[in-house]
Design a protein that fits this description.
The protein is mainly beta. The protein is about 10% helix and about 40% strand. The protein has one domain. The strands form 2 sheets. Strands 1, 2, 3, 6, 7, 8, 9 and 10 form an 8-stranded antiparallel beta sheet that branches. The protein has a two-stranded antiparallel ribbon with strand order 4-5.
Length: about 140
């Protein structure tokens, strides 16, 4: 007879728990359906396999990530980000939500996002590169 599998309670997600800070300034006025996206730009490991099948695993120490910050075009944070872009200096990023904390000390804006006019306010998706990105979990695992 198969045993019953017991799992622990899942963590609750609440968008109001999300805080995004750029250079210690609170970001707000997000697009309708998204607050941020962070995507690693490199794999953690690379592999080399010779013709006879012997493999070498190399740890990749590059910790660069892409960070997209989608703001409603009416958010005052657009003016702050445009100012950072024009200064062309590194800045800090801290993203804390219900499940994790993502941060970096060296980030920069790659380009000014597209702007579009229409019947209603549009979004501006700020493309930001994070160097030396770190991520820690805000959750604990229990058996």
């Amino acid at each position: 007879m198969p045993s019953k599998i017991k799992t622990s309670k899942m963590r609750e997600y609440d968008a109001n728990d999300c805080t995004i800070m750029i250079n210690d300034k609170l970001m707000y006025g997000f697009s309708e359906n998204s607050m941020f996206t962070v995507t690693d730009k490199t794999d953690a490991n690379t592999y080399k396999i010779d013709p006879q099948g012997s493999a070498t695993k190399s740890h990749n120490n590059k910790t660069m990530a892409g960070f997209t910050l989608p703001l409603d075009e009416t958010s005052p944070c657009n003016a702050y980000l445009l100012d950072l872009f024009n200064k062309d200096e590194f800045f800090t990023v801290d993203i804390i939500d219900s499940t994790s904390h993502i941060s970096c000390h060296y980030a920069s804006i790659d380009k000014i996002p597209d702007k579009q006019g229409g019947a209603q306010a549009g979004d501006r998706n700020w493309p930001i590169t994070m160097l030396n990105k770190e991520e820690t979990s805000n959750m604990t695992y229990s058996d």
